[in-house]
Amino acid sequence: MSSSPVIRVRNLHKHFGKLHVLRGIDFTVTRGEVLVMIxxxxxxxxxxxxxxxxxxxxxQGEIWFGEELVGYRRNASGxxxxxxxxxxxxxxxxxxxxxxxxxxxxxxTVLENVIEGPVNVKxxxxxxxxxxxxxxxxxxxxxxxxxxxPTQLSGGQQQRAAIARALxxxxxxxxxxxxxxxxxxxLVGEVLEVMRGLAGDGMTMIVVTHEMGFARxxxxxxxxxxxxxxxxxxxxxxxxGAPAEGRTAEFLRRxxx
Amino acid sequence: MGYNWxxxxxxxxxxxxxxxxxxxxxxxxxxxxxxxxLGLTLGLCRSSRLGVVxxxxxxxxxxxxxxxxxxxxxxxxxxLPILSGIQMGNVTSxxxxxxxxxxxxxxxxxxxxxxxxDRGQMDAAKSIGMRYSKAxxxxxxxxxxxxxxxxxxxxxxTLIKLTTxxxxxxxxxxxxxxxxxxxxxxxxxxxxxxxxxxxxxxxxPFIYLSQQLERYxxxxx
Lengths: 257, 221
Prior knowledge:
The complex is a heterodimer.
Chain A: E1 5-16, E2 19-30, E3 34-38, H1 45-52, E4 60-65, E5 68-69, E6 72-74, E7 80-82, H2 85-92, E8 95-98, H3 110-120, H4 126-139, H5 155-167, E9 173-177, H6 185-200, E10 205-208, H7 212-218, E11 221-226, E12 229-234, H8 236-241, H9 246-256
Parallel strand pairs in A: 3-10, 3-11, 8-9, 9-10
Antiparallel strand pairs in A: 1-2, 1-4, 4-5, 6-7, 11-12
Chain B: H1 8-12, H2 14-46, H3 51-66, H4 69-84, H5 90-116, H6 119-127, H7 132-162, H8 174-185, H9 188-220
């Protein structure tokens, strides 16, 4: 396995008003790695994920995607200055994101959702984008839903379409923000299966989830976050089998019951 | 009790109604064009993150919503030429005045429509690399516009009826011509009743269209 870093987070801090939600986060994700973030709700894991593609601004520290600093640049005096929208958008286009609430575009068909990025961000010809989009939809098992509108799909189908939409941009990494949390229990499996497939194909992934089974079998490393700090970071066998920190053990005990 | 209705007078003077309905139509189209264009601009500005863009828009909207349109019209027709040297005819003044007034309300409809779209839609658009302006145009506005149709038709009906204020500037629109007609015929009840019917006939198709659109979009989600 190569170990070239894809995402590097350095001393990351973030406030919401007076609330200090991220308090000095450091980690690196290498190419092809699957990192699963766990932790109690309100611990800051979703905020951290949203900072990585700059859906949230951060106050201090650095996030590097490949060789690019996300969201900011250094001016002549070394200060961080917010980048222009066009530059921020360019780095976002290199990462895919999947949301808890799917966020498909309801006024567009499934196929239109998937070609939206390639056509309107990358400037591909519609005719060229459609075969790729269909291939992505095949991959997530939605070959028969090209012309359906999102409201006509089940939650699991919507989430799989959303994954296809992200994949159609040919991202270098995928971010999953609690992708199964708003699904009915019987639909969780089909989404996790698609994610397992992606992981198996070597996609670099960061996944925020409460699905401990998925974390145990698909993760290369598991990160436990609480109160905006990394409690511990290790391989799944260690985190689930012999957590070094009391808070991790306590959290795992609670989610298992 | 013993009033003798005489609607023949309305038929006799139908040319007056037709002629003035055209003027009302012109006022409506002019005011609507200004209201829509300026309203969209103001609505977008007021939705902006930037204070320098947001504040002037908010000031305009609240100024025009909190003062009587009659005063605004009189200002534009009588005071503006004195202050700025800009002199417009009475029809143009009325159209501009009603348009500027309407823009404030249209802006609020746009802003509410934009705000009503789930924040996740902008997140999703950004996550595939879209810039703010393109996400607005391709993702947010097309959805927002659907929700804006009912309140917008409302505003449109209000705007058509506001054109009657053109009579204050002696514009020969429906109300003004009706009043002239009453002075000649002494038949206010018949003429005013006919006036109400004319407005209803103009406005109702739009209300019907709005309901059909809502039904159509309701199906497609």
